[in-house]
Amino acid sequence: MVLCPVIQKLVSKRVVLASASPRRQEILNCAGLRFEVVPSRFKETLDKASFAMPYEYAMETAKQKALEVANRMNVKDFRSPDVVIGADTIVTVDGLILEKPVDKRDAYNMLSRDKAGGYGIQALGGMLVEYVHGDFLNVVGFPLNHFCKKLMELYYPPPKDAIHHVKHDSIPSVETFEVLSDEECGSSNSTQQNATRTSKLGDGATGSLGKKEIGQHMLREPMVKCSGDLENLTKFPSTLLELLDGFKASKAMFVACKLKVFDLLKGKAILKAKDVADHINASVCGTERLLDSCTALELLKKTNQGYSNTELADKYLVSDSEYSLHGYIMHANDHVWPLFTHLESAVKEGKNQNHRAFGKKAQDLFQDSYYHSMETKLRFMNAMHSIIKLTARDVATAFDLSRFRSACDLGGCTGALAQVLIQEYPNLKVTVFDLPNVIENVACFQPTGQDTSRITFTSGDFFKDNIPEADLYILSRVLHDWPDDKIDALLSRISDVCTPGCALLVAEIVLGEEKIDPPRAVLQSLSMTEGKQRSSSEYKQLLEKYGFTQVQTKITGNFLDAILGFKKTTHIVN
Ligand code: SAM
Fold first, then answer.
1. Beta-bridge partners for 561
2. What pTM, to 2 d.p., does this model score?
């Protein structure tokens, strides 16, 4: 196998290693791979007894680590990774999986008992090893050879008739073990220490053998498949290709949603292009192109019988599904898209382009832009409702809020967050506070069959009217909309009504400290010259300025993150 060409296949790809193990990084670096490190948060708690063979446990853990990172990045990032590499290491003795040594003493005990694990073969631990059966790099931390063979299968698939199905009964086993933590580098120091301690054991440490089995799992995201075919023909950088074509993909999905294609194909429905065209009152050739595009984007499936929804489309794109994003997509199509066509002017002038996109200057973002007609208002409320429905639980549980008895969700719109808050906290009552013309339209967003008696809707303007009393104030996706003087007015008013010990919960996309990620948040602010997105330290500073203390941020891994601060106790000094 020639190594370089297959590694080169990944040059223009976004490759992510779902592990913080320095050994794995070193091996992949030496092989010339460029990758980002995003340690997996998957807890290694799979039931070992449920796997027939120890290697199956390692494979499943590796897969879950990669999946956790891929899913998290899919939600967080504008550009999903192309390849996510997950790996896991276990030690087995006589078919029994040994746990990783938790500290030096544990490693010592492990070595004293059965002489496997707890040291690094590439360092002094190597003195303990008489021979290795299998891939040496597998023992060090990553089976590079096996990895490259898997890449070859992905990028140079053999002709169909040359495929043989091989039964994998075991990954090659070897005889030593080093802790390969997927946690941050702090724990890798203890690995080094373990290895040093191990080496002092000298001859006593060699002898009966443990088996080390490494599972690795790679995930390819759907977009690679689209660009993969082209890439075989040309050297066009796939990153740029995705950016070049990204708007076409967005618009294809927007139009299919607007024409209710996914509603038509809901559930098990399978229809030919002509039938879809008849239903949506469109040309057959245009419809066929749209359906094929949606199939390529993995929103639809195509068979001889016709087109049908993928699970993704059924769950999120059908307009009346429980977690439908249809409302948000329509807002993106009808409001955000026209604004972005004037991005050049927005950049040059540093102003919101409402007047160019909609022929109306937006003095007030909500009254003049989102709420200037019943149609735009309901569209906006639908959009907010669909986003918050998918993120509310993570926001509501980011911190333990059980100490609070009353909450006021300022700019709480349809009350979608309130609905989840009362489910999570049985002793909590929530007031949803929003503009009068929003509150008068909330009825159609209330769930049927759920007791909502602990939710009250109150209309008012949070810049002018009395803010209801509460132990906990919530600002979900409010602060990023406003310029500094408005934020000053709003936070001063909240601070004034908030008594010591009460708290403010903010839900926003929190930027990294460099303020360039996640791209989704940075790109959103391009069209909104009034407000801005902030990093965790900026939110801390902001909340502290208005008398909140113990400010903590929780990155949820979902669309919105959460920040909580407590109103300072004021000490009266005589
Ligand atoms: N909190 C909801 C969420 O997370 O989905 C809605 C966020 S939306 C971006 C901002 C909300 O603030 C809208 O519902 C809007 O009507 C409300 N809002 C804007 N200006 C307001 C004001 N002056 N007083 C009260 N609510 C206001």
1. 508
2. 0.65
Question: Left, alpha or beta for 462 (phi > 0: left; psi -120 to 50: alpha)?
Answer: alpha
Ligand 1: does its nearest atom lie under 6 Å from the Cβ of 411?
Answer: yes
pLDDT value of position 248:
97
The residue whose CB lies within 8 Å of the most ligand 1 atoms, and thus the one to mutate among 331, 370, 413, 458, is 413
What residue owns the CA closest to ligand 1's atom 2? 412
Ligand 1 close to Cβ of residue 156 (< 6 A):
no
* Cα 475 to averaged position of ligand 1 atoms, centre (Å): 9
Task: Name which of 40-44, 99-103, 488-492 the model is least confident about.
Answer: 99-103
What 3-state class would DSSP assign to 212?
A: strand
> What are the strands, taking DSSP E only, across 82-138?
83-93, 96-98
Nearest-10 crossing angle of helices 238-258, 284-296 = 130
User: Does residue 209 register a pLDDT over 50?
Assistant: no
Distance 151 CA to ligand 1 centre (A): 48
Only one residue has tokens 């976004």, namely 14
Q: Residue 191 half-sphere exposure, CB side, CA atoms within 13 Å?
A: 24
Q: Comparing 340 with 123, which gets the higher pLDDT?
A: 340
- Res. 488: pLDDT tops 80: yes
Neighbours of 201 (CB within 10 A): 18
Euclidean distance between CA atoms 306 and 303, whole angstroms: 5
Beta strands in 248-385 (DSSP E): 300-303, 306-309
Choice from 377, 394, 420, 478 to test ligand 1 binding pocket (greatest atom count within 8 A of CB): 478
Q: Which two tokens stand for residue 298?
A: 């993995």
Distance separating alpha carbons of residues 312 and 309, to the nearest angstrom:
8
HSE-up (13 A, CA, CB side) for residue 513: 3
Q: 370 in ligand 1 pocket by Cβ < 6 Å? A: no
Q: How far is the CA of 478 from the centre of ligand 1 (A)?
A: 6
What secondary structure letter does DSSP report for 334? I
At 75 the pLDDT is: 67
CA distance 297 to 249: 7
Contact 113, 204 (CB under 8 A): no
With a 6 Å cutoff on the Cβ, whether 307 touches ligand 1 is no
Q: pLDDT class for 573, splitting at 50, 70, 90? A: low
